[in-house]
Amino acid sequence: MASLGFVGLGLMGGRIVKRLLAAGHQVSGYNRTRAKAESLIEAGMQWKTTPREVTQAADITFSMVTDTAALLSIAEGPDGVLAGLSAGKIYVDMSTVSPRLLRELAGRVAATGAQMLEAPVSGSVPAVEAGTLIIYVGGDEGTLEKVRPIFETLSQKIIHVGTNGQAIATKIAINLNLPAQLVALFEGLLLAERSGVPRA
User: Fold this and answer.
1) Angle at CA 54, nearest 5°, toward 48 and 57?
2) Going by CATH, does the domain composed of 4-175 fall within 3.40.50.1010?
C-alpha cells in the first residue's frame, strides 16, 4: 500500500485524512496550524513540520487549501511541496484555484521527475464523511489509475476530464451554472403560482 501525505488539514482536508486513516492508509500530514491536526495525530497521522517533509515521506501527496496564495505558499520555497518531490512520486492538488496556475504547477512538478494530478471535488463535509464526493481529475490517465484506489475511499464517482487545468475548469463551469439553474427554477415556480397552478 502506498504511503500517503496530506497538506492542508482544514474543514475538508482534515476529514479526508480521517477517512483515509480509517481505511487503513498510512498518512503523513502538515497544516500551518498544528492545533487543527491534534485529533488526526491521535488517530494515527504522522505529523510533519513542513510540506517538504510530507512529500519526502510519501509516495502520493495530496493538498487542499483555500486559494491561490495558500497553494503557492505550500508549494514554493525550500520547505515547499516541490522541494520534496522526486522521480516516481505523485502530487495531487484538490484545491479550487485557477486552471492556469495548475498547468504551471504541473510543469514544475514534472521538472522534479514526479507527476501531478488535479482533483477538485463537488460536495462538502457530509459527502466526505459518507464517501460520496464527486472527483474531477485532470492529468495523465496512467497516474490516475495509480491513485484511483485512494480516490475510491472518498468517492463513488471519479471523472477523468483530461489534462491539467481541464478538471478545475470543469468544476468552475459547473459552479457558475448552478446559480443560473436556481434562478430559472424560482422564476418558473413564481410563474406557475401567479398563473393559478396549485402547489399540491
Assistant:
1) 105
2) no
